[in-house]
Amino acid sequence: MPETTLADLAHEVRSKNAGPFWVTMELFMRDAEGYRIAADESFLNERVIAELYRVERSTVQLFRIPALNVVKISFPRPVSQGSLRDRDIHAGQHHVPLARLRIPGRAGSSTVS
Amino acid sequence: MHSQRVKSVRILSPSGMLGAGWDHATVERGIALGADVISIDGGSTDSGPYYLGTATPKTTAKAVARDLRSLLTAASGAGIPVIVGSCGTSGTDSGVDWVAGIAAEVMAEEGLDLKVARIYSEQDAADLKEHLDAGRIHPLPPLGELRAGTLESCTHIVGVMGHEPIVEALRAGAQVVFAGRATDTAVAAAYPLMVGMPAGPTWHAAKIVECGGQCTSNPRAGGVLATIDADGFTIEPLDPTVSCTPMSVAAHMLYETANPFEMREPDGTLDVRDARYTAVDDRIVRVEGSKFHVADQYTIKLEGARITGYETMSFSAVRDPVVLADIDAWADLMRTMIKQRVAETVGLADDEYAFDLRLYGHNAVLGDLEPESGPPREVGVMLLVNAPDQATATAVAKVANPLMLHLPTPGMDYLPSFAFATSPAEVERGAAYEFVLNHVVDCASPTSLFRTETGEKNRA
Questions:
Q1: Would the CB atoms of A94 and B259 count as touching at under 8 Å?
Q2: How many Å apart are CA B299 and CA B138, to the nearest integer?
Q3: Which end of chain A is more exposed for a tag (fewer CB within 10 A), N or C?
Q4: Per the structure, how many domains does chain B have?
Q5: What is the pLDDT of residue B2?
Q6: Number of domains forming the structure of chain A
Q7: Conformation bin of residue B224: beta by default, left when phi > 0, alpha when psi is -120 to 50
Q8: What range(s) does the DUF4387 domain occupy (chain A) (predicted)?
Q9: Domain of B395: which CATH number?
Q10: B336-356 burial code (b ≥16 CB/10 A, e <16)
Q11: How many CB pairs (< 8 A) connect A and B?
Q12: CB within 8 Å of chain B, chain A residues 32-71
């Protein structure tokens, strides 16, 4: 059975440059239950992000915003914007590894046959 | 009190960028709702360092002319000012002159006689070196201490102005302000701050309107109107069929900012931790509780770009399932073969040039971070070469050309032919750039790094 990912519980997951030297991402969770999972420190934390994106853990900033059911993550851009090895000038597609993060112990939420 | 006090200010933000286009009816509606000022951003670093490095605009003149015609005719009729920030994408001096020149043509065609101010924000490396030597330039993370050589290597450097130079131009009677590089927010904040609106609600409103309709239920349907008063601000879309909700407005505070609670401006920090978003009705939102903490030190942020080399691109494509089944090994072989052939023919060592081989359709966008695996249906193979000069970059791409056409996988005993997208296969991209400044200058005055000119541009 497929596992549930953060994207399954989110209205939108997005990423974008925050200036030329930072990338920022947001998980807009659908409801308080989805937020509770995304905001659970034992599941999603600076270490997990550092491993997912291969960046220094100490540079990862993680913000939990219960009023909006949002978890926001920022870290320095690993590749300089517009440089030879930058394949995402606006960093607009870098949310995907985060969105696909599997939530442990949950089966797929899809009931569509 | 007998002096006339302004109780509220209405900012009309037609779009997130001059040249993006909008329905002129939305601007007319904002005027009818009582707009006091029109503000719009003309640029950003978001599209990369090329635009600052070359001082060329991302937008096309016809689109800018069309948008200026919409704004200048509406504002002239209503007798309200128009403020454009970060002119010409990167806010270089030539970008300001480019937008001002287009505006002059539009005004001549429309018979408008408006007083124009141009605020220049480009910085001279030698002047900045004096600030550096005096210990007045500091890095912002993740960059380190600035070296004088970095300043000298930039083709263009701009200072990112706050609201003060714009306020000064408005106070001097400007009806239209074309500003060089400015914070996205300063453009919208200038007029309300000038007439005494509180800093917290003003800067917060300015952040919310800076992308036009991005904070609404339909970002493609035109801009927004923000009404700032002593206690907060309200925001509504210009299109009556579109809504702002507490969620859509609050969410925009997160957009393109590393920190969702604070935003630094030259003279202090916007703090929205205690902001409350409430629905006035089904399409208007009220925001209260935004604060602004004035900084001990006034700072101007610098942006600078320099040339990293010259690039040549080549693009081929693979559809053969035999190659696709082994695409990573094929790409590794390609990299090895390119280096070997370049060393043999052009005589370049590995550290004398660089290239990036990208497999679009496989893992080009995310590279090593790509979570999916499995053979793709087809793969676009982009070779991007960077070398100290254009001829060398193209020579490397040409040496790679037979490999991009015929390279077999390690297990094949025949020669495949791949699908080049264009002929010639090589595209010379010219100079490539990188941003190298993310530093602030301690300034004694908010206007000292900027220069304002009014009237006709002296063409002498």
A1: no
A2: 10
A3: C
A4: 2
A5: 45
A6: 1
A7: beta
A8: 6-101
A9: 3.30.70.600
A10: eebbeebeeeeebeeeebbbb
A11: 106
A12: 52-54, 59, 61, 63, 65, 67-68, 70
pLDDT tens for each residue of B289-334:
999 999 999 999 999 999 999 999 999 999 999 999 999 999 999 9
- Picking from B420, B414, B417, the residue whose alpha carbon sits closest to that of residue B397 is B420
Residue B199, in any domain of the structure: yes
Flag if B255 and A87 touch (Cβ within 8 Å).
no
Is residue B384 one of the residues assigned to a domain? Answer: yes
pLDDT at B290: 98
Q: Tell me how many degrees the CA angle A88-A93-A95 measures, rounded to the nearest 5.
A: 130
ipTM of the complex: 0.93
CA distance A112 to chain B (A): 23
User: Are A43 and A107 contacting, i.e. CB atoms less than 8 angstroms apart?
Assistant: no
Residue B5 has a pLDDT of 81
B386 interfacial to chain A (CB closer than 8 Å): yes
Nearest-CA distance A79 → chain B (Å)? 11
Q: Cα(B1)–Cα(B290) distance, rounded to whole angstroms? A: 27
Range of the domain at B372: 307-435
Identify all chain A residues contacting B45, using CB atoms and an 8 Å cutoff: 17, 19-20, 81
B373 alpha-carbon distance from chain centroid:
34
Chain B CB contacts of A85 below 8 Å: 356
- Give the domain range for residue A9: 3-79+92-102
Does residue A31 sit within a domain? yes
HSE-CB at B13 with a 13 A cutoff on CA atoms is 35
Residue matched to tokens 């693009």: B315
Provide the edge-to-edge strand list for the sheet that holds B262-265: B262-265, B268-271, B291-294
- Rounded Cα distance, B387 and B311, in Å: 7
List C-alpha distances in Å: B165 to A94, B178, B182, B446, B448. 37, 11, 10, 7, 9
The answer to whether position A111 is within a domain reads: no
Axis crossing angle, helix B390-406 with helix B327-345, rounded to the nearest 10: 130
Are residues B173 and B74 located together in one domain of the fold?
Answer: yes
Q: Which residues of B touch A16 (CB under 8 A)?
A: 255-256
Name which of A85, A26, A19 is nearest B160 in CA terms. Answer: A19
Q: Assess A89–B contact: CB distance below 8 Å, yes or no.
A: yes
**Looking at chain A, which residue has its C-alpha nearest residue B301?**
A19
